[in-house]
Each structure stands twice: as structure tokens, then as C-alpha cells.
Known about the structure:
The protein is an alpha+beta fold.
Amino acid sequence: xxRGRANLDKLSSSAAQLLQLLNDILDFSKVEAGxxxxxxxxxxxxxxxxxxxxxxxxxxxxxxxxxxVNLDAAPAIWHGDAQRIGQxxxxxxxxxxxxxxxxxxxxxxxxxxxxDGDTAWLLLQVEDSGIGMTREQTQKVFDAxxxxxxxxxxxxxxxxxxxSIVRSLAHCMGGEVQ
Length: 178
């Protein structure tokens, strides 16, 4: 029945949120304990981005959000921990969808070459037309269990772990997030 389907959708959504919370807590604990192992291998960046967009695509579609992806990242194949890079991107996109009631989200990927020319670095940018943050909020949102302010927790939910995990994973791979 329609009511049964709606209840199952709510149950499924709640289960997915609980699983995400448990995974976030486990990842946070591994990082804090210095036990997070990276699995570096070759991966297709375009596929990684498509998978990350697909993970939050239903929520974005329900809000009528538009996507744009600018993949200026030659080569197509990169070397690194695809699972963790994907996790970073999914967390950033999940926040973008959560805090964007209408409008658009864009993803940009481009290579950066340091002066030594030895290693290519990947710059991933997620931009949205959402509610935004003050300068003060941007300084603390990467701290564990912290959100922009208490009213955001009530209005949008969440634990305040997502961006902390993003920062920790980026640091584990020698990168940074801002």
C-alpha cells in the first residue's frame, strides 16, 4: 500500500542514517588511534565522482537541485586511496545537499603540480548555493562534534563528524581541506 511504502522509505532512510553514523564513529576512532590504513591503487577519477554523486543523487533530485561537474583532471587514472577520496567527496556532497534547500551544487576536479614536478595533487572543490557560513563558523566546522551553530543541528540534523572526518582523511593522505 502507499502508506506501507512511505513507512518503508522512512525506515530505509533511518537505517541508512544510522549506518552512516556508525561508520563515521568507527572511522573517527581509527583516525584518532592512528590505525587508519590507506589502500593506494590506481582509480578512475570520473567513475569515483559519478559514484559519489550517485550516493546523494536521490536526495538532491527530491529537492530539485541541479548538478554540474567540471572534470579538468588529466590524467583520467589517478593513484591513491579511492575509497577514502570517495568518502571525502561523499561527505562534502552530502553536506552540500543537506544545506542547500534549492539551487545547485558544482564539483570541480583539477590537477595541481608541485614545484618538484614529481607528484600530481588533486584539487577537489564542492560549491553549493546553500545557506552559507560565517567566517567564524568556517573556522570550527572541521572540529569533531561541532556544527555551525545549535540551530543548524535542530534544523538539519547530523552529528558534526562528517567534516572532521574529511579533514582527518585529507591529512592522512598528505592533503588539506578548507
